[in-house]
Design a protein that fits this description.
By secondary structure, this protein is of the alpha+beta class. It is built from 7 helices and 4 strands; from the N terminus they run βααβααβααβα. Bound molecules: 3'-azido-3'-deoxy-thymidine-5'-alpha borano triphosphate (ABT) and magnesium ion (MG). Its cofactor is Mg(2+).
């Protein structure tokens, strides 16, 4: 079953939006299979944002992600990678549609509340980077046959 990596960034935690954000994915029907509240090391932040390492905003991004705790999560379900990106909304919250998390709660591209893997391969890389196998729980869709046709 498809899985994605989602991370509520420091701004989402500081603004008290953890419950609201988790609620959207739960209500949609996706299955939570991993969750931890954690401080992020510089090494982990740099590895996570490795694709952006040549970009001018890279250092600020690493400083931001390591500045305060985050909520790291793995969610499971058919099409969850692309669907979660839709629920999250456009990278720049000012362009994000109302009804998306960034559209409803965000104001700044560098403070856009939550990260979501942008492709299935990226999700696999990010899940392996942030979670060990024993931190992930296999329990969901097999016990919820009403979710899928
Ligand atoms: P992430 O889910 O955090 O990866 O965001 P998203 O995939 O929507 O957008 P990308 B392009 O991956 O942005 C990564 C982080 O870099 C910030 N950023 C991006 C800037 O600050 N300035 C920019 O010009 C761009 C393109 C936004 C993202 N994170 N934060 N915080
Ligand atoms: Mg990205």
């Amino acid at each position: 079953m498809e899985r994605t990596f989602l991370m509520i960034k420091p701004d989402g935690v500081q603004r008290g939006l953890v419950g609201e954000i988790i609620k959207r994915f739960e209500a949609k029907g996706f299955t939570l299979v991993g969750l931890k509240f954690m401080a992020v090391s510089k090494e982990l932040a740099e590895q996570h944002y490795d694709v952006h390492k040549e970009r001018p905003f890279f250092q600020g991004l690493v400083e931001f992600i390591t500045s305060s705790p985050v909520v790291a999560m793995v969610w499971e379900g058919e099409g969850v990678v692309a669907s979660a990106r839709k629920i999250i909304g456009a990278t720049n919250p000012l362009n994000a549609e109302p009804g998306t998390l960034r559209g409803d709660y965000g104001m700044d591209v560098g403070r856009n509340l939550i990260h979501g893997s942008d492709a299935i391969e990226t999700a696999q890389r990010e899940i392996a980077l942030w979670f060990t196998d024993s931190e992930l729980v296999n329990w969901g869709p097999t016990q919820k046959p009403w979710l899928y046709e």
